[in-house]
Specification:
four-stranded antiparallel beta sheet, alpha+beta, globular
Protein backbone atom coordinates (compact mmCIF):
# COMPACT_ATOMS: atom_id res chain seq x y z
CA UNK A 1 0.00 0.00 0.00
CA UNK A 2 1.40 3.38 -0.90
CA UNK A 3 2.19 6.10 1.57
CA UNK A 4 -0.26 8.40 -0.21
CA UNK A 5 -3.18 5.97 0.31
CA UNK A 6 -2.30 5.48 3.98
CA UNK A 7 -2.01 9.25 4.52
CA UNK A 8 -5.39 9.80 2.83
CA UNK A 9 -7.02 7.10 4.96
CA UNK A 10 -5.58 8.56 8.15
CA UNK A 11 -6.75 12.04 7.18
CA UNK A 12 -10.27 10.72 6.52
CA UNK A 13 -10.36 8.98 9.91
CA UNK A 14 -9.15 12.15 11.64
CA UNK A 15 -11.83 14.27 9.95
CA UNK A 16 -14.51 11.72 10.87
CA UNK A 17 -13.33 11.61 14.50
CA UNK A 18 -13.34 15.41 14.71
CA UNK A 19 -16.86 15.53 13.27
CA UNK A 20 -18.12 12.97 15.78
CA UNK A 21 -16.52 14.89 18.65
CA UNK A 22 -17.95 18.21 17.53
CA UNK A 23 -21.43 16.74 17.17
CA UNK A 24 -21.59 14.48 20.21
CA UNK A 25 -18.62 15.52 22.32
CA UNK A 26 -19.31 19.11 23.21
CA UNK A 27 -20.89 19.69 26.62
CA UNK A 28 -23.84 21.51 25.05
CA UNK A 29 -24.63 18.58 22.75
CA UNK A 30 -24.20 16.11 25.62
CA UNK A 31 -26.72 18.10 27.69
CA UNK A 32 -29.22 18.27 24.83
CA UNK A 33 -28.83 14.55 24.29
CA UNK A 34 -29.49 13.64 27.95
CA UNK A 35 -32.54 15.91 28.17
CA UNK A 36 -33.96 14.72 24.84
CA UNK A 37 -33.39 11.07 25.72
CA UNK A 38 -35.17 11.44 29.05
CA UNK A 39 -38.08 13.35 27.53
CA UNK A 40 -38.39 10.73 24.79
CA UNK A 41 -38.44 7.95 27.40
CA UNK A 42 -41.12 9.84 29.35
CA UNK A 43 -43.24 10.37 26.24
CA UNK A 44 -43.43 6.60 25.65
CA UNK A 45 -43.95 5.89 29.38
CA UNK A 46 -40.59 4.14 29.74
CA UNK A 47 -40.03 5.33 33.30
CA UNK A 48 -37.36 2.75 33.96
CA UNK A 49 -35.20 4.34 31.25
CA UNK A 50 -36.25 7.90 32.16
CA UNK A 51 -35.15 7.23 35.73
CA UNK A 52 -31.60 6.42 34.59
CA UNK A 53 -31.06 10.04 33.44
CA UNK A 54 -31.61 11.40 36.96
CA UNK A 55 -28.72 12.42 39.21
CA UNK A 56 -27.78 9.94 41.94
CA UNK A 57 -29.39 11.88 44.77
CA UNK A 58 -32.60 12.32 42.76
CA UNK A 59 -32.69 8.59 41.87
CA UNK A 60 -32.25 7.76 45.57
CA UNK A 61 -35.09 10.10 46.59
CA UNK A 62 -37.47 9.26 43.72
CA UNK A 63 -38.10 5.72 42.48
CA UNK A 64 -39.63 4.93 39.08
CA UNK A 65 -43.19 5.02 40.43
CA UNK A 66 -42.55 8.40 42.07
CA UNK A 67 -41.22 9.66 38.74
CA UNK A 68 -44.34 8.36 36.96
CA UNK A 69 -46.56 10.23 39.47
CA UNK A 70 -44.43 13.41 39.22
CA UNK A 71 -44.68 13.37 35.43
CA UNK A 72 -48.44 12.65 35.47
CA UNK A 73 -48.93 15.92 37.38
CA UNK A 74 -47.03 17.91 34.73
CA UNK A 75 -48.47 17.62 31.20
CA UNK A 76 -45.61 19.58 29.66
CA UNK A 77 -43.26 16.81 30.74
CA UNK A 78 -45.45 13.91 29.73
CA UNK A 79 -47.07 15.16 26.54
CA UNK A 80 -44.56 17.57 25.05
CA UNK A 81 -44.43 17.37 21.29
CA UNK A 82 -42.13 20.27 20.62
CA UNK A 83 -38.94 21.14 22.48
CA UNK A 84 -36.73 24.08 21.62
CA UNK A 85 -33.58 24.83 23.59
CA UNK A 86 -33.41 28.59 23.97
CA UNK A 87 -30.07 28.45 25.77
CA UNK A 88 -27.79 26.23 27.81
CA UNK A 89 -25.63 27.76 30.48
CA UNK A 90 -22.78 25.71 31.93
CA UNK A 91 -21.41 27.04 35.20
CA UNK A 92 -17.76 28.07 35.26
CA UNK A 93 -16.74 25.07 37.36
CA UNK A 94 -18.09 22.79 34.62
CA UNK A 95 -19.95 20.70 37.21
CA UNK A 96 -23.47 22.06 36.75
CA UNK A 97 -25.61 23.47 33.97
CA UNK A 98 -29.08 24.75 33.18
CA UNK A 99 -30.92 24.00 29.94
CA UNK A 100 -33.67 26.51 29.16
CA UNK A 101 -36.38 25.06 26.94
CA UNK A 102 -39.63 26.24 25.39
CA UNK A 103 -42.10 23.37 25.14
CA UNK A 104 -45.53 22.71 23.75
CA UNK A 105 -47.84 19.88 24.80
CA UNK A 106 -50.18 17.95 22.51
CA UNK A 107 -53.12 19.94 23.93
CA UNK A 108 -51.45 23.19 22.83
CA UNK A 109 -50.35 24.21 26.33
CA UNK A 110 -47.09 26.14 26.14
CA UNK A 111 -44.54 26.88 28.76
CA UNK A 112 -40.90 26.81 29.66
CA UNK A 113 -38.96 24.14 31.45
CA UNK A 114 -35.60 24.85 32.99
CA UNK A 115 -33.67 21.62 33.42
CA UNK A 116 -30.91 21.69 36.01
CA UNK A 117 -28.09 19.21 35.49
CA UNK A 118 -24.99 18.09 37.35
CA UNK A 119 -21.95 16.27 36.09
CA UNK A 120 -21.42 12.86 37.70
CA UNK A 121 -18.56 10.57 36.72
CA UNK A 122 -18.10 12.51 33.48
CA UNK A 123 -21.79 12.38 32.44
CA UNK A 124 -24.50 15.02 32.60
CA UNK A 125 -27.43 13.95 34.79
CA UNK A 126 -30.73 15.72 35.51
CA UNK A 127 -31.11 17.01 39.06
CA UNK A 128 -34.42 18.90 38.87
CA UNK A 129 -36.83 20.93 36.74
CA UNK A 130 -38.42 24.34 37.08
CA UNK A 131 -41.63 25.08 35.19
CA UNK A 132 -43.03 28.36 33.86
CA UNK A 133 -45.90 28.62 34.30
CA UNK A 134 -45.90 26.48 37.41
CA UNK A 135 -47.93 23.47 36.29
CA UNK A 136 -48.07 21.31 39.39
Amino acid sequence: MSTKVIASALAAVAVLALGIFLFFGTPTNQIKSVVNQQFTAISVADFEKAHTYLAKDKRAAMDKDDLRYYVAQRPLLQYNVKRTFSSIIIQEDGASATAYMDVEAVDGQKGAINVFLVKEEGKWMISTYDFTPDIK
